[in-house]
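Expect chain and fold; see below:
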Amino acid sequence: MNEKQLAGKKAASYIQDGMIVGLGTGSTVYWTILEIARMVKEGMSITGVATSKSTEKLAQEQGIPLSSLENVSTIDLTIDGADELTEDLTLIKGGGGALLREKIIAYHSTHMIVVADSSKYVKKLGTFPLPVEITKFGYLKTLNAIKNMGCTASLRKENDSLFITDNGNYIVDCSFDEICFPTTLHDHLNQIPGVVENGLFIGYATKAIIGQENTITYVEN
């Protein structure tokens, strides 16, 4: 069993019967979703809220009951991945392009568990480019404003076309080398008109489950 499988499957053990569960997006939480599907087939009653169209499709294929965010009062637990995380559980997310929906669902969750392999656990954020979701209107102006913050920034592409999020927006991938003050950067980015949201998740996660070779490391706030 690889690191992603270890972390993803372990996270599912925190789900209890009757919970509303936020279902994250990515290659590690994929294993969580498969494990949840197994638990549902064995009789556990849960309702999932998907963070992306791809996760919604996977959950439906696996027979996991789903609801929309608007139709639930709260989310008991969200399990999601991360592109980078530090020991204080500050995250970079959005490598899969679902950062806005992921952040909305995380905000409305009582608890959030992050699942990751060991390569994602870092001392300082910044090796992985920070995704920023921006509107199509005025996107070149927004891109230039982001570049003026001291990063190398480029519009994400997919199959030679600009990547479009589930919300109909673009993604800018920003290389800052090292992010020493994530809260300040988060706030400054979100003050730029045209920026919808950025991939810094600060204060959302309560626990991280990190697969490391044949064992699991836990990080908690």
About this structure: The domain at 130-197 is CATH 3.30.70.260 (Alpha-Beta Plaits). The radius of gyration is 17 Å.
